[in-house]
Amino acid sequence: MKASSLLRMIITFSVLFAVTACGGEVVRVTTVENGPLKDLKEADLAKLEEIKKAKESQDIDPGLTNVLGATRHFCVSEYLAKHPEIRGVAGGDYDYTVGGYDVLNIVVYEEQDLCREAVRVSGDGYISFPLIGRIKVANLTTSEIERLISIKLAQEQYLLEAHVSVLVSAYNSKRILALGALKNPGGYSLQARERVLDAVSRAGGVDLDQAGKKGMIIRTENPGEAGERKIVIDIDLQGLLKGRDQISNIYLMDKDVLFIPTAEYFYIIGQIKRPGSYPLIDREISLVEAISTAGGFTSIAARNQTRIIRVEDGVEKIIEVKVDAITDAGKKIQDVIIQPDDVIVVPESFF
Fold it and tell me: DSSP code of 290?
């Protein structure tokens, strides 16, 4: 479990069982079975069922869910500390390596007859070049191919110290997937020195109406080897888009999956001025803030019978909160942090 998740859980449970100085619980937790929502109107109960069905239909692909749930997650700084050869911001030393089906343009400055355009790399990683024949270029950078051709020409006594330039004109050997809340999700060829924002741009940009605050890169380490494994690199998407977190703009690699999850929501129903669903995007939000976001209580709201319906470890729980004890008595420390998919229910007062 990540440190941030553990800290959030500790804070949540500290709040849930806090008790006010004047006696009586500000926050009380029960299960749905032990705390039925008997005082809710039929319309609110129906809305609850509607929300549950809508959440079930929003589930992402089960295969992707399994990978994300069973794979170790790294923050960007942690990943870069383990892989200093891949720099997040300062570029220059992370070169594209050529592979099968890439297309190269090759220039030998001392001999124009040796220049070649649209040289396709074979599926097994070779090219044919005048005077030196078939040479393997797979897994070499363009600068390494330049040196290799120069050395081969010298070895064959054709040109000594030839100056060679190699450019990739078509990238076909490596692929990435861009999935989730993007305008044009799908598969794309990996370009040289391509970063997260480059891939986002090629996929049409982020769908800001749907995207959440995070992004993920599912990366295959040691592909094709006995030690092959997948890892997940978590990205502060909103920070990256707003220029606050350029370290997350890391280089992409072959077989990377860039996934932009849709925004996580909380729901609020009952005696509230603007009931509905609200995204959790930039920051954590407390119960009192959530109520304010939805316009505040109506005049007939049972403020101190406010409930949060939350699912934890497959168990549906009811968190009952005396909101006035938090706002009027200055007990902000006991305010409850809203979690994704929480349903806030404000019943009607009978007095």
Answer: H
Please state the separation of Cα 194 from the chain's center in Å: 17
Question: Is residue 195 packed enough to be buried (19+ CB in 10 Å), middle (13-18) or exposed (0-12)?
Answer: buried
Residue 114: pLDDT band (50, 70, 90) is very high
């099968």: which residue's tokens? 100
Longest dimension (CA), the chain: 101
Q: Which candidate, 190, 231, 258, places its Cα nearest to that of 79?
A: 231
Fold (topology level) of 62-94+174-260: Outer membrane lipoprotein wza fold like (3.10.560)
End-to-end Cα distance, the chain = 46
pTM of the model: 0.70
Whose tokens are 């007859």? That residue is 113
Query: What tens digit of pLDDT does each residue of 253-301 get?
Result: 999 999 999 888 899 999 999 998 888 876 789 999 999 999 999 999 9
Alpha-carbon distance 236 to 246, whole Å?
A: 9
Q: Which residues contact 173 (CB under 8 A, 6 or more apart)?
A: 98, 99, 100, 101, 102, 121, 254
Q: Does domain 3-58+264-346 have CATH number 3.10.560.10?
A: yes
Tell me if 335 sits within 8 A of 20, measured CB to CB: no
Q: Are 321 and 306 in contact (CB under 8 A)?
A: yes
